[in-house]
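Its record is quoted verbatim for completeness.
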Amino acid sequence: MERQSIQSLKDKDAVDSLYLVKEKTVAVGKNGRPFMGLQLGDSTGSIDGRLWDRVDELSREFEVGDVLRVKGQVQLFQNRKQLIVHRLERVDSATVNFEDFIPKASKNVEDMLVELLQMVRTMKNDHLRQLVLDTLEDPEIRPMLLKAPAAKSIHHAWLGGLLEHILSICKIMDFMGTHYPFLNRDLLIFGGIFHDIGKLWELSYDNGISYTDRGRLIGHMQIACELIDKKASRILGFNEELRDICKHIILSHHGKLEYGSPKRPKFLEAMVVAMVDDFDSKVSTLKSVIEAERGSGEKWSRYNELFDRYFLLEDLKEKLND
């Protein structure tokens, strides 16, 4: 079967292709009829789907993370593409390469890792530098880092997304360490790399992007703290005080207790890591939101619940450079 990428779909196109189920809900419409809402994806993007027939029966035949053969037609709803599903069929996962259905980083992952390692080698503290190098060059961790996403859906949710997020933050940290010379640059670089390193084990991308059992039970912060203990125990002179400082950066990097941090930042470097992580995540998220909406032809986005506002869709860099 010839694949029809989501990016290529146009209004009134007949569709017969394979897509990954990213979201699935069953609800009742204003007319009293049940319907199934879907978010279907491939490596080029995602599209909302609606199914109106045999809803209860078909909803039991597949789950989020399955790949479906979908037949239907594209239509515009509020000037945005929607796929009206006429038929669907679950595809045997053994016959599917799931990487074909997950977006990939726009930059070469090997090049990004080389750039990151170059920055790490400029760290002045021998213990912190060795901790980070031993982690990034670990033969188990390195191949995982080249593929891992940074999140399930919110930001950098694509293959190589975690490395892209880490490198982006570390570049900002490099600037911060120069702009604010009273900050410890080594701790900033460490925080940029280690704050989300536990996501290598928290998230799975073998069958779409989902949480592992360990991720749900323990979480990426605790996993990262365990990794520090494991690696630091093999570095002569890596004392308990430095371990605690490193762990605090990780445990406080969501910034607030209500955002999932067991601790709030208690020193400048930890605060900067939390703020820069939040900043980079939001920039990535908003960029994805705006790019996904620009194909609608509208000047303004739909109301975005995450940011609680509408967004101007014009490319101001392009417009103001004309």
